[in-house]
Amino acid sequence: MLNNTALFRQACYLNGQWVDTELCLTITNPVDQSVLGTVPSLTVADVNRTIEQAHAAQTDWAAITAKARAKILNRWFALIEANVDDLGTIMTLEQGKPLIEAKGEIHYAASFVEWFAEEGKRVYGETIAQTVNTNRLSTIKQPIGVCSAITPWNFPAAMITRKAAPALAAGCSIIIKPASETPFTALALAELADQAGIPAGIFNVITGDARTLGAPLTQHPLISKFSFTGSTQVGRTLYEQCASTIKKTSLELGGNAPFIVFDDADIDKAVTSAVQAKFRNGGQTCVCVNRFYIHDAVYEEFLEKFAAQVGKLRVGNGLEQNTDIGPMITRRAIDGMQVLLDDALAKGARQLVLGNEVAEQGNYINPKILVDVNDTMDIVHEEIFGPIATLIRFQDEDEVLAQANNTIFGLAAYFFSQDIGRVYRVAEKLESGMIGINTGMISNEVAPFGGVKQSGLGKEGSRYGIEDYLTVKYLCVDIA
Ligand code: NAP
What we know:
Layout: E1 12-14, E2 17-19, E3 24-28, E4 35-40, H1 44-63, H2 66-82, H3 84-95, H4 99-119, E5 126-128, E6 135-143, E7 146-150, H5 158-170, E8 173-177, H6 183-196, E9 203-205, H7 210-219, E10 223-229, H8 232-243, E11 248-252, E12 257-261, H9 267-279, E13 289-295, H10 299-310, H11 331-346, E14 350-351, E15 368-371, H12 378-381, E16 388-394, H13 397-404, E17 412-416, H14 420-429, E18 434-437, E19 456-457, E20 470-478
Parallel strand pairs: 7-8, 7-10, 8-9, 10-11, 12-13, 12-17, 13-16, 15-16, 17-18
Antiparallel strand pairs: 1-2, 3-4, 5-6, 6-20, 11-19, 14-15
Helix pairs in contact: 1-7, 2-4, 2-5, 2-6, 3-4, 3-6, 4-5, 7-8, 9-10
The protein binds NADP nicotinamide-adenine-dinucleotide phosphate (NAP).
């Protein structure tokens, strides 16, 4: 199935070496739970050793120029692009998303490597007007040191490169623990990092029990910065663990995105964008819509057109052509959605009958639309993380803004309006780190990705993304 079987690695990449252990984790295909392979289950001692090696290697990496680092990163970028078919296949096998989406994610992942290779050359210090005539004041920026990261299963490639690329471009080393459902994409990226000539110890991928490995990654004194993407619940725990050694911390956590359609919106555009923003990756993205707020005057039109498009979505194996929605990552994820669904139905929501019913077995679930939803229902407050759309009617702007902001989360929000005054009013009042206005697709490497409230801390991608891997040092020179 792969053109280059060397990309399918069942070992950890530590200090430039492929390391195996007797104790393993078994990785399965979410389509049918068939075994794909195994990866090592490392111990705390293995991780501590890797951290020490990453620390030793980082000094030399920081000492070469940003331009020299960019050359190596650009080789990594080119290798990722050249292997997009195999990387996409590995991702679909372990994660389930349709192959076209998996390949799209590989391009997205590669874009961070290309972007930060260049951004590394644009790290500027500054001079500051002195307060005493005989002083000269300036700042320099330096790599923060050894970094660690823990990433989720829903974007097995992009969440790795969105952290590793700025770290490496800045002159840091990094140790990454990918999600246990999807380690093979991360290990394939490590194989390509090795081929690109990234020196031993600079980019490391570890696998094993999350709690066991999470302890040294968040508490080892040689780690200067920790970056996490995952659920808010786990993020809170890891943030606490980082407190013991006062690590610089970035958190990209859960969301509860509202999608508001005003009565002056282009409804056809809103419907197409709604389908993309809700059902991409089977609804399993942190920026997926969780709540649709539709103005009373356009509600029926929106619902009719939306239901028609959702009814055409095809559920199936991501490797099959024409699949729009692959399997959910685990059966447990579907059970969690069922609890939310049951609560909503018991409190008066109605589930529409759509045309695309496949047998709901294993990890397959049909896309669903719930109407008559209100904020007494848990589904409005919790991240659904699956293909269930919830629709709520509203009458006016202030009312819908209050409802949209009534959440602990603040990652992405979307709204549709053609009134320029409303566009600015609503964009300024939505409590969210990222806002899609008349679009449901907002992610790219050049724009700052990140949330407010309990959706996280810090920005990834963009010119801000490298700052988290740098420290500002102030120099005060007396010239008298
Ligand atoms: P998760 O359960 O929080 O797991 C994420 C990662 O944390 C995995 O690698 C997991 O390892 C690890 N982990 C879990 N418990 C841990 C512990 N006690 N100590 C150390 N590590 C631990 O989240 P998920 O289900 O994989 O991903 C979905 C969540 O990620 C959603 O909430 C989504 O919104 C969020 N997300 C956010 C963004 C963003 O940029 N804001 C992007 C993508 C996803 P194991 O796999 O080994 O358990």
